[in-house]
Amino acid sequence: MNEKTANQKLLLGFQHVLAMFGATVLVPALTGLNTSITLFCAGLGTLVFHLITKKKVPVFLGSSFAFMGGIIAVLGGSKMGDEGFLEKLAALKGALIVAGLIYVLFALLIKLVGYEKINRLLPPIVTGPIIIVIGLRLSGSAINNAFYVNGEFSLNACLVTLVVVATAVIISVYTKGIINLMPILFAIIIGFLVCIPLGFCDFTNVANAHFFSFMDQDVLAQLLCAPTFKADAILAVAPIAFVTLIEHVGDITTNSAVCGQNFMVDPGIHRTIAGDGIATALAGLLGGPANTTYGENTGVLAVTKNYDPSVIRIAAVIAIIMGIFGKIGGFISCIPGPVTGGISIILYGMISAVGVRILINSRLNFGNSRNLMIAALIFVVGIGCDSVPVTETVTISGLALAALIGMLLALILPVGKDDVLEA
């Protein structure tokens, strides 16, 4: 594209912020983490990613939904002000730092031996079902938020959820251009407006929020909370990195195709993975959720045909500024449960749908006994087992156990000629 003026770049950057905003702020709204810290970490993590990737890859890093199950398991549904929250947050910080370091170790390994050899550990027959399990494990919390208020079934909540889901579906299917990239944001706005006359909105958090987020003692307490490294928290969160690594590779491949450049080679997939991992570790250190490359922003690249990485960095700075101003975080925290529940129904389903897409694109033959057995065991163990005790104080999540079983079976069971369907 032709060189853009500063004002044009600013507008393009803000457009990227709008594309990532709805999904990024939903993660803290659903998990109990702080929204301002999350926005700050997304922007800072994006800048770190660009530094590590030689400022060549136009990628924005936002909150990862794949880690939500692990985050919820560690925090136990608690939030700031609840007894023991900071202790749980400290354990979560340590677990996310370990998850980020797993990325960095994989990046070093890929640099040393090449990506093709490492890929044998996580073939599509493992990653596809695992990603499906991630979405399905979260589906129960989506239903509870969508249809229940204070533990009781609510027809008004059902109405709000229906409006939210319908809005997201209509915008996704029937609109074009930049609006098509923001179904989540529009669904939240319309759902919020419907909630006002129904009495679901409480703006106390806006009134109580500091103008500058980091002047708030609660926010400072979360930022300064020192990470602790507890085995049960690490086992609940860190193994998810083995799955999201493959998602990362898919996102970078898509980004390369959109931009017409091979980012897998230059600056190299080892650099993008390391950038993602260090950004996640940094977010963990500060009290934000894990970061991940955002497909929404790749979609903006495809629509605008502007692939200038500096525009993404402008978006990152805007996200940091939004995180600093506390009133924004206070307002977002007022989003009612039926709204976040309705959005969650879609997003958790989309996570599982990504797993289905991996299986379809890989043309795996499910008439083949090897594929069938691996997928079957991953589904039952991953969904049926909430957690498995290892010791009196340490447990391993069903998701991590399912991933381990899948990887072992994929390595042990012989690959047949009919594992993949013919084109």
Description:
- The longest helix has 29 residues, at 85-113.
- The chain has helices spanning 6-31, 35-52, 68-75, 85-113, 115-118, 124-147, 155-174, 177-180, 183-198, 204-208, 217-224, 231-237, 240-259, 264-286, 295-304, 309-324, 326-332, 337-361, 369-384, 398-412, and strands at residues 61-63, 148-149, 152-153, 291-293, 387-389, 395-397.
- The relative contact order is 0.22.
- α9 runs antiparallel to α18.
- The protein has 20 helices and six strands.
- With 423 residues, it is mainly α.
- The mean pLDDT is 87.
- Strands 1-4 form a two-stranded antiparallel sheet. Strands 2-3 form a two-stranded antiparallel sheet. A two-stranded antiparallel ribbon has the order 5-6.
Explain briefly what this protein structure is.
This protein is mainly alpha-helical and 423 residues long. It contains 20 helices and 6 strands. The protein starts with 5 loop residues before the first helix and ends in an 11-residue tail after the last helix.
List the helices and strands and how they pair.
Layout: H1 6-31, H2 35-52, E1 61-63, H3 68-75, H4 85-113, H5 115-118, H6 124-147, E2 148-149, E3 152-153, H7 155-174, H8 177-180, H9 183-198, H10 204-208, H11 217-224, H12 231-237, H13 240-259, H14 264-286, E4 291-293, H15 295-304, H16 309-324, H17 326-332, H18 337-361, H19 369-384, E5 387-389, E6 395-397, H20 398-412
Antiparallel strand pairs: 1-4, 2-3, 5-6
Helix pairs in contact: 1-2, 1-9, 1-16, 2-14, 2-16, 3-12, 4-12, 4-13, 4-14, 6-18, 6-19, 6-20, 7-9, 7-18, 9-18, 13-14, 13-15, 19-20
